[in-house]
Structure formats: C-alpha cells, structure tokens
UniProtKB/TrEMBL annotation:
<dbReference type="InterPro" id="IPR003187">
    <property type="entry name" value="PLipase_A1"/>
</dbReference>
<keyword id="KW-1134">Transmembrane beta strand</keyword>
<feature type="active site" description="Proton acceptor">
    <location>
        <position position="167"/>
    </location>
</feature>
<dbReference type="GO" id="GO:0009279">
    <property type="term" value="C:cell outer membrane"/>
</dbReference>
<keyword id="KW-0479">Metal-binding</keyword>
<keyword id="KW-0442">Lipid degradation</keyword>
<comment type="subunit">
    <text>Homodimer; dimerization is reversible, and the dimeric form is the active one.</text>
</comment>
<keyword id="KW-0812">Transmembrane</keyword>
<feature type="binding site" description="in dimeric form">
    <location>
        <position position="131"/>
    </location>
    <ligand>
        <name>Ca(2+) 1</name>
    </ligand>
</feature>
<keyword id="KW-0106">Calcium</keyword>
<feature type="active site" description="Nucleophile">
    <location>
        <position position="169"/>
    </location>
</feature>
<dbReference type="InterPro" id="IPR036541">
    <property type="entry name" value="PLipase_A1_sf"/>
</dbReference>
<keyword id="KW-0732">Signal</keyword>
<feature type="signal peptide">
    <location>
        <begin position="1"/>
        <end position="21"/>
    </location>
</feature>
<keyword id="KW-0443">Lipid metabolism</keyword>
<protein>
    <recommendedName>
        <fullName>Phosphatidylcholine 1-acylhydrolase</fullName>
        <ecNumber>3.1.1.32</ecNumber>
        <ecNumber>3.1.1.4</ecNumber>
    </recommendedName>
</protein>
<dbReference type="GO" id="GO:0005509">
    <property type="term" value="F:calcium ion binding"/>
</dbReference>
Length: 297
C-alpha cells in the first residue's frame, strides 16, 4: 500500500511549487480568493493551480461510531455482514481550482468560469486484520460561474455570487456505491475578519432504479453555511449543513477545522465533525470524528 502514500505526498509537493505565491503573513480575502480584486492577475486567465478547499492529512482520525454495515434505502446498497473497520484511520484531502474564462459577459457584468477538483480519502492504515484497505474515497469535480457583487452596508461587505454543477461519487460498485449530482448556488460576504459563504443546492434527479441513495439530501442536506475567521497565524473554519426539513427528515452536521501556520504555508491542523454525512458511504450515519495532522495554505 505504498503507492497511495507516495502519490499523495508527491501531489502536495506539486501543489507547493505550482500554486501562485501569496503573502504568507495573511489569509486572502474572498475577493482575492476568487480574483475579484483590482490586482493584475485577476484580469487574465493563466490556468494556474490555485488553492480551493483545505489540503490536509490527518494522521489519526477517530470516530465514536464505526460504520461497519453501510446501508441505503435502496435494497441493492445494503451491506449485510459487519466489515470489521477500526475506529481510528488516516484521512487526507487534496483540492485545487483554476480559472478557465474571464469576464464572459464583458467588463460591466463580468462572469468568470472556474473548474475545480477535490478528493478525500479515509484509509484504514492501522487495520492490519483487513490488510490496511482504503475504507472510502470521494471524488468531486466541479464547474461554476462567479460574479462579483461589490456593495457595503456598514461592516457588511458583499463579495460574490455564483452557480455551478457538482458531481460527487465514491467510484465503487454495489452495495457500496454512492453518488449524487447537484446544481449549487453560492453567495459570499465578509464582516470584518469573518468570511461567510452560503451554498444552497438542488439535487439533479436520477433514474429511480439507478439511485444508490434516494434519500441523501435528507441527510447530507440541501444547504451549507461556511464561516471562516483568521487571527494572525490562527484560522478557524466552520461548515454546517442541514436538510431543511422537519420531523424525522431533519438532519444536520457541523465540521470545525482549526489550523496554525508555523512554517510558511505548512500548518498544524485539527478537525472535529459531528452529525450525518462525514463521507458519502456515511451519508445516513451519525457519528463524531476527531482528527489531527498537517495542512497546506
């Protein structure tokens, strides 16, 4: 199982050398993140690899509730016998984006087309009994259109809005196959040092007999709210999801990431997740996970 580890760290090195340099003494604003500021690089397309979601490795990620028999309301996607997973595993994520087109509706209206890719894995590296398998890997390509929305009401600053297509799947066969496709809307604001991003979405329908997880939006939600705050070398990110339904269909999750930059772009990283949908295979599984490791950017 050496190849996945080698490829992961090789990718981290690749990202480090090919990502546009930034001021490591401060975290970027939302306008800088989406190249909506007045700097020269925002006026042209360079197909540079840029940071998107956090790139991290959690050397120990502990769960309070192991999902040993993944299930779905689709009877073809139910594991009958316990698999034998450990409650501690290694987890990592890689993620990047690039601008594809700039100002497609002209300078007055704007409109930038972006593409992105994220991949997160849960690796049972300490599970010698099962020969250290990868428990779950989620693949997430995206394409979206971003518009600047510069306005200010007191300390409340509007930054951008956008819409895009998102595919997420785990690339496995039944009974472990999970996937969904969404149209995701997003709006971004800033209040002093707090960045706020709201992402409601609509799941695209699939053929009834070909849907691995028909009730996924009742667990992994129909909207996400992201809050980010930084103070010096400290950064806090909170992501919350909710099904936007009541009664037995009311489900939610929250993920808190904390990082401390100690060597340029290298950071100590800690993550706590609680609720449903820590990964696609766990979309209807309730648990709390705690992980520690390193991250970049």
């Amino acid at each position: 199982m050496k190849n996945p580890t080698f490829l992961f760290f090789a990718f981290l090195i690749f990202i480090s050398f090919h990502t546009r340099a930034q001021d490591i003494n401060k975290y970027p604003t939302l306008a800088e993140t989406w190249q909506l500021d007045s700097t020269s690089q925002s006026q042209k397309v360079e197909f540079s690899i840029l940071p998107y979601k956090p790139v991290y490795i959690l050397f120990a990620n502990y769960t309070t509730n192991v999902n040993d028999t993944p299930t779905s309301i689709n009877e073809n996607n139910v594991v009958e016998e316990p698999i034998g997973y450990d409650n501690i595993e290694l987890a990592f994520q890689i993620s990047f984006k690039t601008k594809i087109l700039h100002n497609i509706f002209g300078k007055k209206i704007g409109g930038d087309v972006w593409g992105a890719y994220s991949q997160s894995s849960r690796w049972q590296i300490y599970n010698n009994t099962l020969s250290r398998p990868f428990r779950e890997t989620n693949y997430q390509p995206e394409a979206f259109l971003i518009f600047g929305t510069p306005y200010r009401i007191g300390n409340f600053k509007g930054v951008y809005m956008g819409v895009g297509l998102n595919h997420q799947s785990n690339g496995r066969s039944n009974p472990l196959s999970r996937s969904w496709n969404r149209v995701i809307f997003q709006m971004g604001w800033e209040v002093n040092k707090v960045q706020i991003v709201l992402k409601p979405w609509i799941r695209l329908p699939e053929a009834e007999n070909n849907d691995d997880n028909p009730d996924i939006d009742d667990y992994m939600g129909r909207a996400q709210l992201d809050l980010s705050y930084n103070a010096g070398n400290h950064n806090f990110e909170l992501a919350t999801r909710h099904s936007l339904r009541g009664g037995s269909n009311s489900h939610a999750s929250a993920r808190l990431d904390y990082s401390y930059r100690f060597i340029k772009n290298l950071k100590v990283h800690a993550q706590v997740f609680t609720g449903y949908g820590e990964s696609l295979i766990d979309y209807n599984h309730n648990q709390t996970t705690v992980g520690v490791g390193l991250s970049l950017y």
